[in-house]
Design brief:
Elements: H1 12-17, H2 40-53, H3 63-67, E1 76-81, H4 87-97, E2 103-107, H5 108-118, H6 120-127, E3 132-138, H7 143-158, E4 162-167, H8 181-187, E5 195-200, H9 206-209, H10 219-231, E6 236-240, H11 241-248, H12 256-259, E7 265-271, H13 277-293, E8 297-301, H14 310-313, H15 318-333
Parallel strand pairs: 1-4, 1-5, 2-3, 3-4, 6-7, 7-8
Helix pairs in contact: 2-4, 5-6, 13-15
Length: 335
């Protein structure tokens, strides 16, 4: 099949039903997280989140106990760290540990798409009453959407909902190892006092075992791989790189999950350097969904991790591009 032939549509109900951890983290747990012993903050984060998942502890009665009352636990937790340290795994583990049935997990863009589909009041109505809202990749580079989400989350916290979030890096924040807690807290301003910040140090786990570049084949090898996979019953998509990039411009990123639905192998021919930052950012969003689904990728042309220009890599979205490069290396190693 060809992804470029697909025109996915998603109703509000579809968007809401998809607010669960992606397949890659369908069974994520605190026990399955493997803290790096060289970075104690990873184990400390697990310990805190285990306590957070148990909910607020009731205060004991009595005059003296009231005088010594411990500070009330904050209803929000923010996981701060570079990419590849397991923030999404821990966020999904927290979601799975939450005993309530009214809980949601999604990326920032999925929540904003929900508001777009239902309207602000409709989104508030749907999410009110939930016990936990998990937001992965909270976007700090769109002031309008950030303000809207801050308002939405403020209403939910006031009704008793607890929050957990991670974020990306805002424009002009260079360096893959940069932490973003202060940027996050500043951008959500009125809501910042509701969050406890957990700093998670570490190195990108994908690069612990994956080095070099994304694997690149020639066109004939890609075609052979596609034919062999299809012959074995694997559902394969095959598209030209330029065609795919052009098609992504006509599909809202919230629908990328539907664009790749059912595919078991993604094949792309003619990969080249991108000359448009808008196209590059759409590719990043697409790769995020492919990575969530853990779909192997075969590609011809230049290695996929070389599609971003030096100007892009030294600009405001550096961290997004580096995360995508790391994921593309991992995805082509799965083939």
């Amino acid at each position: 099949m060809h992804l470029t032939d697909r025109r996915p549509e998603m109703s509000a109900e579809d968007l809401a039903s998809n607010l669960v951890p992606p397949p890659q983290f369908a069974h994520a747990s605190f026990d399955s997280y493997r803290p790096d012993p060289d970075y104690p903050s990873q184990q400390a984060a697990v310990d805190y989140l285990r306590s957070f998942s148990a909910g607020p502890k009731p205060q004991k009665g009595g005059f003296f106990s009231r005088r010594r009352k411990e500070p009330e636990a904050k209803p929000g937790v923010y996981l701060d760290g570079g990419f590849g340290v397991g923030k999404t795994h821990l966020l999904a583990a927290l979601w799975h540990a939450e005993p309530g049935t009214r809980k949601y997990f999604g990326t920032f863009i999925e929540y904003t798409a929900l508001v777009g589909a239902l309207g602000y009041a409709g989104a508030v109505k749907l999410l009110t009453g939930s016990t936990l809202i998990c937001i992965d990749e909270f976007e700090l580079d769109d002031p309008g959407d950030t303000m809207m989400m801050t308002r939405l989350l403020t209403e939910l916290v006031s009704s008793g909902t607890r929050l957990a979030a991670t974020s990306n890096t805002p424009p002009n924040a260079l360096g893959e190892g940069r932490f973003a807690a202060q940027d996050f807290l500043r951008e959500i301003h009125s809501l910042s006092s509701q969050f406890e910040t957990l700093r998670i140090d570490g190195t990108d786990y994908r690069r612990r075992s994956v080095e070099g570049h994304a694997r690149a084949l020639d066109d004939d090898a890609v075609r052979e791989r596609v034919d062999a996979a299809a012959a074995s019953g694997t559902v394969v998509s095959l598209d030209g790189f330029d065609d795919l990039i052009a098609h992504l411009a006509h599909v809202h990123p919230s629908r990328f999950v539907k664009l790749i639905e059912g595919a078991e192998l993604i094949a792309v021919q003619g990969v080249r350097v991108l000359d448009s930052q808008a196209a590059a950012l759409r590719l990043v969003a697409f790769i995020d969904r492919v990575y969530d689904a853990q779909l192997p990728v075969v590609a011809s042309g230049i290695p996929l991790d070389e599609v971003f220009t030096d100007e892009m890599l030294n600009g405001g979205f550096r961290k997004k591009y580096l995360r995508a490069m790391s994921r593309m290396i991992a995805l082509t190693e799965q083939q």
